[in-house]
Write a structure and sequence with these properties.
The protein is 40% helix and 16% strand. It is of the alpha/beta class. It has one domain: TIM Barrel (Alpha-Beta Barrel). It is globular, with a radius of gyration of 17 Å. It holds the Pfam family IGPS. Its EC number is 4.1.1.48.
């Protein structure tokens, strides 16, 4: 069983427990559910945008604890102030140390910045959670979803006003994924089955395979400003980066330095 398999199995249990605690109807009554969302795809496509989607990430299965000493408000507001085009907030507890409260706190601290709920989405219930907790965008990971699931989840996200970031790792995942309700495609340079690899070769290989109408971003394994320029040259508008900034005692300041070198 791969790490991804273990995460998805655990997620199914989490979702079942959540459903028994609060209904979809009650999630839809939460104050943040009715807020007008902010478009991440538009922010990434705006002239002058940094393109950086900066991530709050305490730990990972491969690296262990990255930084669990800072508040989510300090990290995300620092990112927004430094010029991040968007924010990514982990809400998976067991493997990444995130919580739903992290997303809510990030939203309150950054009311006008698009926020991605970074989690392993396998059920439409989680789409309603994301909206109720303050997200603007949800992540769908092709490696752990069937084409039918991608279609169902992306359609539901659009129905309730959320954008969809579909994450792929190779051309096979791209070709089998229904893209009608996908706003952004993210190429994860790190193989989720073993969390290995440390380059952006996957993004470079898939750059011209992604439909032009869809905003494309590169995820993971980006630590140098020069890599951003390399990816921009082949059409990437966004760059999801977490560990590079989270390893610093002041992630926002680290991001500001990074952007200044692009």
């Amino acid at each position: 069983m791969t790490i991804l398999d273990k995460i998805v199995a655990r997620k199914a249990i989490e979702v079942a427990e959540a459903k028994s605690t609060i209904s979809i109807e009650d999630l839809a009554k939460e104050p943040l559910f009715s807020r007008k969302t902010v478009s991440l795809s538009t922010r990434l496509s705006t002239v002058g945008s940094s393109g950086i989607v900066a991530e709050h990430k305490r730990k990972s299965p491969s690296k262990g604890i990255i930084n669990d000493q800072l508040t989510v408000e300090f990290v995300t507001n620092g990112y927004a102030t430094a010029g991040a085009a968007g924010l990514s907030v982990l809400t998976d507890a067991d493997f990444f140390g995130g919580t739903k409260e992290d997303l809510h706190k990030a939203r309150v601290a950054n009311p006008d910045t698009p926020i991605l709920r970074k989690d392993f989405m396998i059920d439409t219930y989680q789409i309603y959670e994301a909206k109720a907790w303050g997200a603007d965008v949800i992540l769908l990971i092709a490696a752990c979803l069937s084409p039918a699931q991608i279609e169902e989840l992306s359609r539901k996200a659009h129905e309730i006003g959320l954008e969809v970031l579909l994450e792929i790792h190779d051309e096979e995942e791209l070709q089998r994924s229904p893209l009608e309700n996908v706003d952004i495609i993210g190429v994860n340079n790190r193989n989720l089955k073993n969390f290995a690899e440390n380059n952006v070769n996957a993004s470079l290989a898939l750059a011209d395979k992604i439909p032009a109408r869809i905003v494309k971003i590169s995820e993971s394994c980006i630590s140098q400003p020069e890599t951003i320029n390399q990816l921009k040259a082949v059409g990437y508008k966004g760059f999801l980066i977490g560990e590079t900034f989270m390893k610093d005692e002041n992630p926002g300041a680290k991001l500001a330095e990074f952007i200044a070198k692009i």
